[in-house]
Write a structure and sequence with these properties.
It is a single chain. The protein is an alpha/beta fold and 358 residues long. Helices cover 42% and strands 18% of the residues. A seven-stranded parallel β-sheet has the order 3-2-1-4-5-8-12, sandwiched between helices. It has a three-stranded mixed β-sheet with strand order 9-11-13. Strands 6-7 form a two-stranded antiparallel sheet. It is globular and about 55 Å long. It starts with a strand and ends with a helix. Bound molecules: nicotinamide-adenine-dinucleotide. Nicotinamide-adenine-dinucleotide (NAD) binds next to helix 1, helix 2, helix 6, strand 5 and strand 9.
Length: 358
């Protein structure tokens, strides 16, 4: 029987590469689409070619397409030729701060690129599940309106309704999103609309902090990956505002991939899920420093700037109740300690590979 085909955009990035590898291991034929825009966005440290090479060298069933999601006719042509059984759209301009400097590239990639893929999917693979990697920034900074308590190392919700975190009914408008958040809102609503209007099996995954060893972490994107990189290399990490007590919930890319497998196996239409590490995998920046220090034995060098990033969340924890209810059996399988350990080990391996080849 011929292998099923999946199209994964952003296949050289953190989520795209993890999803590609996951489906390759399940025996699928994977077509990855990526043009290394991350290097254009963030410079050499954001370069994802190493990950593209790794996939191509490790798997015969991986085919790379050097294509830009903004290239409408290219996307239509690829979808027509492949008619994939599933689509995972993980290509994006992913940084809040960078978006304000490149608003056209940001919107064209995040919003228009998503429309290109959705419409191509409708024309050539309308019955195939379509998963969009969305973000918790669709809620803008409205989560900052929740009353908070200050604890020794983190901010904590002071309203019991949010003990489990923020769920999918949280409002998405009338708050500050950053231009990135706004372009992702457009993509998120469009993916929902293709689900509801055309009855296509679409799903938006509103990510918390997605992380793992395959991230090409840079200061503007890739929280834990960049933080561990600074620790390992003895670089100074800059903390922006909120006393360093801002809370993120971290999910390993493997757990994202296992959920995507579950959705593709049993899809809904126009679905929305918050997908982060939940309370169990949450940490503040100060707490993340302790994790990194414990792992490497090196003290974290950092400076504090008393100015928060525009629209930055003070405390964000994803409520995973809906996803657990709809997909029983799926859950977070990799805890924070293991996440740090994996990122740390991969970073040490990559830096020794670089010094061997230098
Ligand atoms: N990493 C996180 O913390 C996080 C959190 C919430 C949501 N998300 C979302 O998840 C998705 C994946 O994030 P990631 O961390 O894997 O990002 P990433 O930057 O590691 O991967 C994205 C990949 O897309 C490629 N790409 C970018 N623009 C492109 C274009 N125009 N055409 C073709 N390829 C292009 C990049 O080269 C990169 O390899 C994104 O939609 C992001 O917004 C990520």
């Amino acid at each position: 029987m011929a292998a099923k085909t999946i199209l994964v955009t952003g296949s050289s990035g953190l989520i795209g590469s993890e999803v590609s590898e996951h489906f390759l291991r399940l025996g699928w034929s994977v077509h990855g689409l990526d043009n290394n825009m991350r290097a254009t966005f963030f410079g050499p440290e954001g370069d994802t070619r190493w990950n593209q090479r790794r996939l191509a060298e490790s798997y015969n069933d991986f085919v790379h397409h050097e294509l830009d999601v903004r290239d409408r006719s290219g996307v239509l042509e690829l979808m027509r030729a492949l008619r994939p059984a599933a689509i995972v759209h993980a290509a994006a301009q992913p940084s809040h701060d960078l978006a304000a400097r490149i608003p056209f590239d940001d919107f064209d990639t995040n919003a228009v690129g998503t429309l290109n893929l959705l419409e191509a999917c409708r024309q050539y693979a309308a019955a195939s599940p379509f998963v969009l990697m969305s973000t918790n920034k669709v809620y803008g900074d409205a989560p900052n309106e929740i009353p908070l308590r200050e604890l020794e190392t983190r901010w904590e919700y002071a309203d019991d309704r949010f003990t489990n975190g923020i769920d999918e009914s949280f409002r998405i408008d009338q708050s500050k999103h950053s231009l990135f958040g706004a372009s992702k809102v457009a993509a998120d609503i469009m993916a929902q609309e293709y689900g509801r209007y055309f009855d296509m099996p679409t799903c938006c995954l509103r990510g918390g902090c997605l992380t793992g060893p395959a991230h090409s972490g840079v200061e503007l994107h890739g929280f834990l990956s960049y933080l561990v990189k600074c620790n390992v290399e003895g670089r100074k990490y800059t903390v922006y505002g909120y006393k360093g007590k801002q809370v993120r919930d971290n999910i390993h890319s493997h757990d994202v991939a296992t959920f995507i497998e579950r959705f593709i196996g049993s899809p809904g239409a126009g679905q929305v899920y918050n997908l982060g590490g939940g309370r169990g995998n949450s940490c503040s920046i100060l707490e993340a420093f302790h994790f990194a220090e414990r792992m490497s034995g090196r003290e974290m060098m950092y400076e504090y700037v008393d100015r928060n990033r525009e629209g930055d969340h003070v405390c964000y924890i994803s409520d995973l109740s809906k996803i657990r209810r709809d997909y029983p059996g799926w859950d977070i399988s990799i805890d924070l300690d293991s996440i740090f350990e994996q990122i740390y080990r991969a970073m040490m391996e990559r830096s020794s590979e670089v010094s061997r080849s230098a």
